[in-house]
Amino acid sequence: MIGARSEELFKKSVEIIPGGVNSPVRAYKSVGMTPPFIKSAKGSKIIDVDGNEYIDYVGSWGPMILGHAHPEVVEEIKKACEDGTTFGAPTEKELKLAEIICGAVPSVEMVRMVSSGTEAVMSAIRLARGFTRRDKILKFEGCYHGHSDGLLAKAGSGALTTGVPDSAGVPADYVKNTITAAYNSCDELEEVFKHYGRDIAAVIVEPVAGNMGLVLPKVEFLESIRKLTIEHGALMIFDEVISGFRVSFSGAQGYYGITPDITVFGKIIGGGMPVGAYGGRKEIMDMISPNGPVYQAGTLSGNPVAMAAGIKTLEILRDNPEIYEDIGKRAQELEMAFMKAAQKYGIALKVNRLGSLLGVFFTDADVVDLKSAVKSDLERFKRYFKYMLEKGIYIAPSQFEAVFMSFAHDEADIDKTSKAVDYAFSKL
Ligand code: KE4
């Protein structure tokens, strides 16, 4: 039950903030509820303004892999603030975060910090076009790469037709160079390259797709992108905003052993502060201003407070590699609870999992792309969501997001969540 204070605040917010939120998914539109206004969070718990406590599996959409308000991260943020929050000048902290990222991800010899995943993707696309002197970009249905105009495109009538805008306000011209194909479809990929090969500047892909629910790549799909981009002189961009430092300390590229040309980061590298980054081998990154002709800039890029949070977060992950095994195990326990409840109550369910990332779909067909993801029973998801919230479990208010396990979730959390899953499924 959403409390009176959240209702009261939401009524005011919708008057002066579009939808009452600063990012659409937070508005709870797809579940038809007032969103709880959050007052604070600590570890695996999040507390709303009415004092309701929830176990949090959103983790601010991925950054909070260590849990909320990690004491060592908070300490570093406080210390950085006391020395001045931003200078608009080079600092040792941005060098340190760059060194950690380049040390963790071998394909990244140089990296540029920005302030969001969107900004990092937008810059990476411009860089790929500048480096190859080509215009076309291939993306995949169901992958989300932030809200830059050129990527708010959906497939035209067929995979080979140029993109059409996926948002008002995006001129058709801005997406005419954006081609869209089905995720995990080697056939469509090959067809696009046969048709556009030499015009393609880059293929951008979520190597683990977290924006259509969780959809895992077929390794041969990623390998085909690598092979075809090399054959046609195009670049491969891994959008690791979700998977970076989540799937492993060297991201999905380390996990799958595939080396992209450019990698985009976000979320975890900021440790809860606004940070995005893009990086790759030196010959490509040297194209970026002031060294080269591809312009990109940002007032708060690399600010010391955000860098401090990112440095401490990545240092903890680097120095405690067992964290990845632990959060994977907890996610597996949760996966088992879903499967058990689905069997017990005869609910059609598919669960995709990779490490600490989980995707739950109310469908009986494997979910391998957007077409299969949208076959999920959204009405059933809405009911499941409400029952889970009722039992104090805070998950994404959309079928097309992922479940994020953190290092702060303990066995008691998993036990309580498993009981909530059983309760929710018994009512579905
Ligand atoms: P931001 O601009 O939101 O920092 O990052 C954009 C982005 C880029 N690439 C991937 C793979 C992403 O998942 C995102 C943003 N993720 C969403 C959640 N799926 C952010 C949540 C929101 O939009 O409020």
Note the main attributes of this structure.
alpha/beta; binds ligand KE4; 39% helix; 7-stranded mixed sheet; single chain; 428 residues; Aspartate Aminotransferase, domain 1; 4-stranded mixed sheet
Number of strands: 16
Let me know the average pLDDT. 97
Helix content: 25-40%
Strand content: 15-25%
Instruction: Kindly report the CATH topology of the largest domain.
Output: Aspartate Aminotransferase, domain 2
User: What is the tally of helical segments?
Assistant: 14
Ligand inventory: ligand KE4
Topology as a string of helices (H) and strands (E) = HEEEHHEHEEEHEHEHEHEEHHHEEHHEEH
Query: Regions with pLDDT < 50 over 5+ consecutive residues?
Result: none
- Strand line-up of the largest beta sheet: 4-12-11-10-9-5-8
Fourth-level CATH superfamily of the largest domain: Type I PLP-dependent aspartate aminotransferase-like (Major domain)
Radius of gyration: 21 Å
**Main β sheet profile:** 7 strands, mixed
Helix/strand-derived class?
alpha/beta
Which architecture of the largest domain does the CATH hierarchy give at level 2?
Answer: 3-Layer(aba) Sandwich
What assembly state would you assign to the polypeptide chains in this entry? Answer: single chain
Shape: globular
Number of domain modules: 2
Cα-to-Cα separation, first versus last residue: 18 Å
Kindly provide the name of the CATH class of the largest domain. Answer: Alpha Beta
